[in-house]
Amino acid sequence: MILKIYLSVINDEVFVLSETDIAIDISYKLQLSEEHLLFFGLKSGGGFTNVDLTKAGAPENDLLFTANKSFFIPHIGAGFYLKHPKYYVTLSTPNFLKGKRYEKQGNVPIAVINDLHVYLGGGYTFEINENMDITPALMTRHVNGAPSSYDISSTVDLYKKMKFGLNYRIDETVSIYSLFTTVKKLKFGFSYDINTSKITNANKKGSVEFLLKYQWN
Questions:
Q1: What is the CA radius of gyration of the chain?
Q2: pLDDT at 90 over 60
Q3: DSSP code of 102?
Q4: Residue 64's pLDDT band (cuts 50, 70, 90)
Q5: How many domains are there within the chain?
Q6: Residue 100: inside a domain
Q7: Sign of the C-alpha dihedral, residues 131, 31, 88, 97?
Q8: pLDDT for position 52
């Protein structure tokens, strides 16, 4: 059994909402057989959320859009990852706790409710040649009280150093992404999302994400 500990800091801004999540992730690796590895992970941390309603462009006398709201949301999550040289299966939730971010109290918004999110996914790797692999994958997300969502993706791995992929979340978004290994333990990447749902008018330009990852051991 091998134990690893990771620190992650994620900042996300969309319209009037900005979030910063800080978490400690603990990963256990178990060798089930010669070709099967089982990873079990625990996440503990929290998220700082700020809702700036003054950016919404509503009239000044509208009570629903005249105040900023800030919240701290604790996170406790867990997940399993079964890995084989040819395929993988995952089951996880980022947070067992039902947190509040934004809800109404009379005419004044105060918090949002975060219900439990459960993710189930898997993929299979096809080796095209010694320098290129292609991995199609499927992931589904289930949330209480909301329709399930489904992601279909395909990732190309070149020389074990560069990854490029395309992801389609049915009736929601299309994404392109990449990940590069510069030195043995340092990776960086980016992704770009384009909305395909009815909320496109609220975010016509899509969104961009950047990733920087370093592993100490």
A1: 20
A2: yes
A3: B
A4: low
A5: 1
A6: yes
A7: negative
A8: 78
Cα separation, 60 vs 182, in Å, equals 50
Question: Model confidence at 62, in pLDDT bands (50, 70, 90)?
Answer: low
Rounded distance, CA 172 to CA 195, Å? 6
Would residue 107 count as lying in a domain?
yes
What pLDDT digit, counting tens, does each position of 131-140 carry?
999 999 999 9
**Phi, psi for residue 115 in degrees, rounded to 5:** -85, 165
Residue 136 is assigned to a structural domain of this protein? no
Mean pLDDT for the stretch of residues 77-95 = 94
Which DSSP category does 200 fall into?
Answer: G
What is the reported pLDDT for 114? 64
pTM to 2 decimals?
0.73
With respect to residue 17, please indicate whether it lies within any of the assigned structural domains: yes
The yes-or-no verdict on residue 40 having pLDDT over 90 is yes
Residue closest to 3 by CA, chosen among 26, 34, 33, 25: 26
60 CB-side CA count, 13 A: 0
8 is written with which tokens? 């992650």
Return the SS3 of 202: helix
CA angle 169, 122, 136 (to 5 degrees): 65
Domain span including residue 41: 2-114
Secondary structure of residue 55 in the 3-state scheme: helix
Q: Which residues contact 91 (CB under 8 A, 6 or more apart)?
A: 79, 80, 118, 119, 120
Which residues lie across from 132 on neighbouring strands? 129, 158
Cα gap 108→202, rounded to integer Å? 22
Residue 149 has what pLDDT? 93
